[in-house]
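Go through this:
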Amino acid sequence: MNDLKISDMQKMQYELWEKHKEKWSPLEPKFARNSLLWMFEEIGEVIAIIKKRGENEIMSDSSLRKEFVEELADVLMYFNDVLLRYNISPEEISEAYIKKHDKNMGRDFNSEHSNYLKHK
């Protein structure tokens, strides 16, 4: 499969919502909180695999890796639900991501972390 763009993921997630819209909550900001909570639950499943099976097994066991990647895909699906519920376009999140990346490229994380610990 191809490398998905954010717009592709949002379109796919919208199609899934459209199929289930009679049972699922509307794509409105007031329901984004639930999508975030479900996303955190999926992140917990990712963490559980790491804790229980470890990095070496994730990298060497193809069936475990498939399960791990599927859980990460669930995280992305709920993330895209949040974007859709807040009507955040692919362009808007891409612009913010690029700006944050540029900012991070100029940061000294070690120094910031040391300063943070000193002031605690």
